[in-house]
Amino acid sequence: MNTSEEETKQIIQNWLRIFDIKFGWIDEFDKIVTKYVESFAVYELSGICFRLLKILQGHDDAVRRVKFSADGRKIVSASADKTVRIWDVILKTQIQIFKGHSYGVNAAEFAPDGSTILSCADDETIRLWDIKSGKELKILKGHIDSVLDINFSPDGKTIVSGSKDNTIRLWDVASEEEIKKFHYHSDAVNCVRFSSNGQMILSASDDRMIILWDVKSGEKLKIFNGHSNLVLCAQFSFNDHFVVSCSCDQTVRVWDVESGKLLDKMKGHYRVVKGISYFPDDKTIVSCSRDNTIRLWDVKLGYEIQRLEGYDSDVDGVDVSPNSDTIVSCSCDTIGIWG
């Protein structure tokens, strides 16, 4: 933010404080006006403004998850149509399709080095695919119910998975062996994520808990309690200092990793919030919901700064490109690219 923008923001904030002291507005009315004006100011000064660039079609059933590659040039999608597909961000076309899962695919992502694709499905398996040849490389078996989420460790040597069987499992990529099982959640594990240093794992569950785990010892480090309904997704901030989560309770929440305390509860969605992601600078969060919207939130103030509309059905997944200039979303059998 340049000097003039900083000065403008300071003037607006000082003006609001003067109004509050000088006129002594009724508390609730004051809060409403202050929040509205501050959020408008943040929107104007942030420079963030996305619009729909393209709708990608090709899947024959619901697209459940979308994820950018590390270089931001490709997108991988996972669908109930049993396929995993790769899309070119610049050309906005499908460039590859992987078939092999016998039931709907719940999640997919690129390996850190970009050479392979990892996927998981309702067929209780985790699969690795070679991008160059398009061939299936490995099938990891062990879960006894749908595998709902997967994530590579930062070095690409380990995989973490979360399942409807209530367990979290660690897998060695080279040997294809299960190397550890975490079992504390009392219901389906919807989301699992490694920290950026690979030393911690985050899990989110239908039991309404978010748990921080130590990878080496398998011990619980923190339990984040507060959501009043199923927790569908949880993500680390890029600096690993914070966790953002979303839930069927219609809220987006931000937690402090060190203390385990709730820092903010963002309200605005009026139906289930399906997915969330930090922007790489950790200053903005994007969320998607069954209220058919995508919303961007200012982390510092906790305010909604943009709402992306246009969908006529649930928005099930969302991700942000590494350079922060593109958002990808999925809904029904289509993928949206916003920039």
Automatic annotation (TrEMBL):
Signal peptide: none annotated. InterPro entries: Beta-prop_WDR90_4th, WD40/YVTN_repeat-like_dom_sf, WD40_PAC1, WD40_repeat_CS, WD40_repeat_dom_sf, WD40_rpt, WD_LIS1/nudF_dynein_reg. WD repeats lie at residues 56-89, 98-139, 140-181, 182-223, 224-265, 266-307. SUPFAM superfamilies: WD40 repeat-like (SSF50978). Keywords: Repeat, WD repeat. The keyword Cytoplasm does not apply. Residues 105-234 form the WDR90 4th beta-propeller domain. The keyword Repeat applies. This is G-protein beta WD-40 repeats containing protein. It comes from Reticulomyxa filosa.
